[in-house]
């Protein structure tokens, strides 16, 4: 029986393409307003390097070194900047500045879905590759969530699709992995990671799952379709 629904955050709870468009506009104008137009190229290069390095670090699985530190040191070396500068750029442009836009880019139906799941007695939580608590507050979803985990926490230390973060959620809830449904937006990361942990996965925004896709996953074109999918899955059990 499904007892909990665990959500990805970026690209799942909000429309990432819209947020990135808003942030691109800000990134193109703020350095000019600060009378430092030469910073635009440097900022773009640093942010691009950070995102690329994080994607590459997925292949490490669960390393002995701290991912929290490794993501900055590797990205700084790639971009040709100091580690403190990379940390400041990420804190400003990836962690803090986007928060003000999140209320306007929440995926339609998300709050209603969270409320419906909570009202039905199911646990609701998030597992993200990035820290999620401030984002949940900005989207006014934090009061509906009983668990928030990010991949760089010391007892996780693994980006998806490594199963450690999924299993950490099951442990903290005290639930069997197969009683948790994971909801994400990237089959190659979210569905693969969930399956490795023994969880089923729903991919939001997908019209249909490829018949031959391994591992298989459920597809929900809209967030509003999720509650119906959960009811259907529970009725089969």
What does this protein structure show overall?
- The chain has 237 residues and is an alpha/beta fold.
- It contains ten helices and six strands, in the order E-H-H-H-H-H-H-E-H-E-H-E-H-E-E-H.
- It has a six-stranded parallel sheet with strand order 3-2-1-4-5-6, with helices on both faces.
- The termini are close together.
- It is 49% helix and 11% strand.
- It folds into two domains: 4-15 and 107-235, HAD superfamily/HAD-like (Rossmann fold, 3-Layer(aba) Sandwich); 17-101, no CATH class.
Helix content: 40-55%
CATH topology of the largest domain: Rossmann fold
Quote the beta fraction: 5-15%
Structural class: alpha/beta
Number of helices: 10
What would CATH call the homologous superfamily of the largest domain?
HAD superfamily/HAD-like
Strand order of the largest sheet: 3-2-1-4-5-6
Low-confidence stretches: none
Using only CA atoms, what is the Rg? 18 Å
Which key terms come to mind for this protein?
single chain; 237 residues; alpha/beta; Rossmann fold; 2 domains; six-stranded parallel β-sheet; 6 strands; 11% strand
Element layout with pairings:
Blueprint: E1 4-7, H1 16-33, H2 39-57, H3 67-79, H4 83-96, H5 102-105, H6 110-119, E2 123-128, H7 133-138, E3 147-150, H8 164-173, E4 180-184, H9 187-197, E5 200-204, E6 218-220, H10 226-235
Parallel strand pairs: 1-2, 1-4, 2-3, 4-5, 5-6
